[in-house]
Amino acid sequence: MRFIHGQLAWMVAAVLVLSVLGSFSYELFFVLSLIGLLIVTELTAPFAVTPDWRRRLRWLILLGLVGFGVIVIRRILEILPPEVLPW
User: Which residue ranges traverse the bilayer (predicted)?
Assistant: First the structure.
């Protein structure tokens, strides 16, 4: 439960900060949530025994990193001039 509370607190704080700054977007929220997931995962990691649900958490982290890669590639393609792109 400590993991769930930490992640929810991080995500609510991210929404509030992005809203106050007037820069809320789904991409920024996703990236901040992924950063929070990685931080909360490390801070709540047990020392001796790894529960089964923590092993399955690796797949969620992997999917998050793939999503992050997609966002980075999309942003890079937006920045590049059309002459550089082969299509």
Answer: 7-24, 30-50, 57-77
Domain that holds residue 8: 2-79
Inside any domain, residue 87: no
Name the band, by pLDDT with cuts 50, 70 and 90, for residue 55: confident
28 close to 68: Cβ distance less than 8 angstroms: no
**pTM, to two decimals:** 0.84
Q: What is the DSSP letter of 47?
A: S
Q: What does the chain come to in residues?
A: 87
20 lies in some domain:
yes
Cα–Cα separations (whole angstroms), residue 51 to 6, 55, 57, 74: 18, 7, 10, 36
